[in-house]
Amino acid sequence: MPAAPASAQDFVPYATAAIDFHRALNIPTGPLVASRAELDSLHEHLVALQGLLDAHTQRTAPLLPTEGDHLKAARTRLWQAADHLHAAYHASPRPGSGEVPGPDHCRARIPEGAPSLTICRRHQQTAQLVRRRTTPADLNSPFTGLIRR
């Protein structure tokens, strides 16, 4: 077992190693549908990573605008990835029945009920923060913003 991290910065490499370890152990080769539990966990991880980048962005952007621009772009891309994971969760087969919701169900955003919608609660809480710090144009654009040089 590795020694305990010496500083806060030492935790991120452990998180990365844990994801690599999880992938190697739990994701077999060949075609396999991602489970809703896996998508929920990945969404939780991306939202946490987006929160970490948000904190760095808020501290860095006033001091170093160019670095701040890059961090803002990364933060926006992470939110876009989390948004896609949330959509993938709702398009994945339901446990038990194996039913795959049709596009009309996804567009209508029909709730599936508790307790399986912790992903939606987390997504909505993060969306509120994202809306305060990002413009709709930034979120919907394939280009995440001006980067100073």
List the defining traits of the structure above.
149 residues; 6 helices; 64% helix
Account of the protein in words:
It is a single chain. By secondary structure, this protein is mostly helical. It contains six helices and no strands.
Question: What is this entry, summarized?
Answer:
This protein has helices at 11-26, 36-60, 65-91, 103-108, 118-133, 136-140. It is mostly helical. The model has no long low-confidence stretch (mean pLDDT 81).
Shape: globular
Helix and strand string, N-terminal first?
HHHHHH
Q: Indicate the mean pLDDT.
A: 81
**Strand percentage:** under 5%
CA radius of gyration: 18 Å
* Alpha-beta content class: mainly alpha
Low-pLDDT residue spans: none
**Contiguous helical run count:** 6
Cα distance spanning the termini = 43 Å
Give me the secondary-structure topology.
Elements: H1 11-26, H2 36-60, H3 65-91, H4 103-108, H5 118-133, H6 136-140
Helix pairs in contact: 2-3, 2-5, 3-5
